Structures are given as structure tokens and as C-alpha cells.
Amino acid sequence: MSDSQRLWTNYAACWSADPGERLAALRTVAVEDVAYRDPGTEVGGLTELAAYMAGFAGAFPGHRFRIDEVLHHHDRSLARWTQLGEQGEPATTGVSTALHRDGRLADITGFFPA
Questions:
Q1: Where is the signal peptide, in residue numbers (predicted)?
Q2: What is the pLDDT along the chain (114 residues), one digit of tens a residue?
Q3: Domain limits, the chain
Q4: CA–CA separation, 66 and 80 (whole Å)
Q5: Which of 67, 59, 62 shows the shortest CA–CA distance to 10?
Q6: Residue 76 CB neighbour total at 10 angstroms
Q7: Which CATH number fits domain 3-111: 3.30.565.10, 3.10.450.50, 3.30.1300.10, 3.40.50.880?
């Protein structure tokens, strides 16, 4: 597994992480002043992103993300992912892009059916 694949896989796990461990896990994959946006929101900083992830986990209990493919070059990456339901069934797919800084995600944009 490439470093970028591992980074995205660990980031994806943050979305379904135990609430008490989410922020610490997020710190290992994203910079403190991370920017995040998707069709429904725009947040800045690890604390706000962790809170947004908690809202997702509450709205989609038992769901998780699987990273299907990562393309990476020049401190930028694109990840194709699948959101999996409680039984592991595909719920939706999308792509996310990111700028990297210091080996972590710094500016993340998610694209999915809104």
C-alpha cells in the first residue's frame, strides 16, 4: 500500500471512528488548520472537521468509507471512495481531492451526489 493510499485509508476511518478517538485519529492524517468542503458544507480546522464527521456518523450509523483508488503527485491527490452501509453494501460513491502539507492532508474537497 502506498503512503497516499494509507493516508486516505486512515482518513476514511476517521469518519466512523469512536467519538472519543476521532480527533486524535484525525490529527495523524490532517494538519491543524485543515480546510474541508463538500456540496453541503465548508469547515476549517481539525475541531470543526471532527464535529462534522460526528454529525455524519449520527446521520448514517454503522456506515464507513472504503478507499478504492488513490492517484497522487506533487503534494496533491485524488481518492475514489465508496460509502458502505451497515451490512457492507455500497450506499454511494464519490471522489475527494486534497493538497498535502507535511505528509498530511491540508485542503480536502469531496464530490458526491448531493
A1: none
A2: 889 999 999 999 999 999 999 999 999 999 999 999 999 999 999 999 999 999 999 999 999 999 999 999 999 999 999 999 999 999 999 999 999 999 999 999 999 986
A3: 3-111
A4: 9
A5: 67
A6: 13
A7: 3.10.450.50
Q: Report yes or no: 66 and 87 within 8 Å, Cβ to Cβ.
A: no
* Residues in a beta bridge with 82: 66, 93
Question: Per this entry, what is the length of the chain?
Answer: 114
Residue given cell 497522487 in the structure block: 72
pTM of the complete model beyond 0.90? yes
Q: What is the DSSP string of 10-72?
A: HHHHHTTS-TTTHHHHHHTTEEEEEEEEETTEEEESHHHHHHHHHHHHHHSTT-EEEEEEEEE
Cell of 110: 469531496
Cβ-contact 100, 78 below 8 angstroms: no
